[in-house]
Amino acid sequence: MRRFVMLAVAMMFVFTSVGASLAMEQGNKRKGKYTYRKVYKSCNQRGEVDSTKPPLNPSDKTQAEWEALFDSGDFTPFGCQDEWTNLSDTEITDIFTYMHAHASDSPTPLKCK
Amino acid sequence: MKYRNVMMSVVFLAALALLATGCATTQTPQATDQAAAATSWQYHEIVDAAFVGQYAKVPMAEDVMIIDSRPFKPKYVKGHIPMATSIPYSQMDKMLDQLPENKDSLLIFYCGGLKCKLSHKAAYKAESLGYKNVKVFAEGYPGWLKVPGNYGSVSVDWMKAQVDKGADMVIVDARPKRKKYDKGHLPGAVSIPDTQFDKFKDQLPEDKNTQLVFYCGGLKCKLSHKSAAKAIAMGYTNVKVFATGYPSWVAYVGKEGAGSTIQAGKEEGSIDIAAFEKIISDNPQSIYLVDVRDADEFATGSFQSAVNIPVEVLEAKVKTLPADRPIVFVCSTGARSGESFYMLQDLRPELKKVYYLEAELTFNKDGSFKIVEPQS
User: Fold this and answer.
1) Considering only B152-156, B253-257, B355-359, B370-374, which range has the smallest mean pLDDT?
2) pLDDT per residue as tens digits for the range B19-45
3) What residues does each domain of chain B span?
4) Does the CB of A87 have a partner CB in chain B at under 8 Å?
5) Which of B182, B210, B275, B341 lies at a CB distance of 3.0 to 4.6 Å from B205, suitable for a disulfide?
């Protein structure tokens, strides 16, 4: 009986965690890349930053670090907060998916070229 | 003094008159010679462009046939009097079954103008076969085009060649948009339904000398002819009608080549890889292919039909992208081309046929390429 409970708990844990990461993965990394770059283009036009180049590259963090950053909901490391606060949840998920897919420990680490 | 001046002028004028008559008298025998030479091969029933114009119309009158006696290629395919049938004089004996059965039918032969004998010879041959109502339009195709408002028709062979080489021209589909155009049209054709010509005519190019080719649903369809006349009235100088139209195109190149729909891939905005490969091999000009890699990458090899617009400069050029055919972006992995796709979604939302290649793409030194579908 005790074994069964353990198994059930373990199963629940596995399913919920898989569920959570799938939810985070569901964004569109291609769209995320465009949106991410667009943030800095409009931020640059507004005059807050000198370059249209984003300050952080996907390969600057590991997948776990990106998950932690996006889970926290605090996007101050990205700068350009006016633009970030205007992003929809979908857009943020897309950006996350882009960062996560090309994180330093991903199969395809990428600088934001 | 005054009198002397007047006298001088009179003498001068008289001399001039004499000179003129002298010239005239020396010319007359030459002209007669020419006429004699001409009449020896000319057919006896000559008609003018206005006469032909009565019959070069949709729908064509029964028991009338306008016959182009010039070679099929390159002459007829490139331009002929609308509704004319091609029976090259050199092939006439083999093609007699194409002539109408009714010997009272009106047959109008023409060829390449006053110096061309083919139509006259063909007319004599038709007469000898028992046709009683045979005419020759001696001024021929050049004479036809000289009449303001007249235009030529082109054949499917010519259309296909132009499309394949990406000729600088605008193809206009004059059929209704939703029922016809949207279901399939010539690659690169713009939709300007004849019934809404005035509403959409701003899609025609600014340069009035641009080659325009109108088509619709085949020989019984009037729409392309009506639209062509409207374009000529607007001042376009280089207008043609592809009169056999879409049905002949489909029969000639097959439905896949008709640029009807592009098969989408699994990801949003992506193009099906097999469909993309087929377009590249069969009909690359049917799409506007943009390689969004950097210039140095592009220089190492790309598709022949591709233009290079690196993604960094795409935004500045986004307004210049054409609306007349599907746009496909490619890069080395799908990342930059995907970004380009979403850029167009954002900045050119009116363009509905935009795709990108979601795959790893590499070019070999010999110009061949390899597309590897991503593992997902």
Assistant:
1) B253-257
2) 444 444 444 444 445 555 556 899 999
3) 46-144, 152-258, 273-372
4) no
5) B210
Q: pLDDT digit string (tens) for B267-286?
A: 889 999 988 998 898 888 88
Task: For domain B152-258, give the CATH number.
Answer: 3.40.250.10
Contact list in B for residue A33 (CB cut-off 8 A) is 335, 338-339, 342
pLDDT value at B16 more than 90: no
Would you say the ipTM is above 0.85? no
Buried b (16+ CB within 10 A) or exposed e, B73-93: eebbbbbbbbbbebbbbeebe
Per CATH, B152-258 and B273-372 having the same topology is answered yes
Q: How far apart are CA B191 and CA B176, in angstroms?
A: 8
Helix, strand or coil, per DSSP, at residue B152: strand
Query: What DSSP string describes B199-245?
Result: HHGGGS-S-TTSEEEEE-SSTT--HHHHHHHHHHHHT-SSEEEETTH
- B46-144 CATH fold: Oxidized Rhodanese; domain 1 (3.40.250)
* B335/A28 CB distance under 8 A: no
Return the residue in B314, B331, B339, B340 with the most chain A beta carbons within 10 A, the one to mutate for interface testing. B339
- pLDDT of A110 reads 78
Confidence of residue A37 (pLDDT cuts 50, 70, 90): very high
Q: What is the per-residue DSSP string for A32-93?
A: HHHHHHHHHHHHHHHTS-S-SS-S--GGGS-HHHHHHHHHHT--GGG--HHHHHHS-HHHHH
Q: What class is the B273-372 domain? A: alpha beta
**Domain segments of chain A as ranges:** 2-101
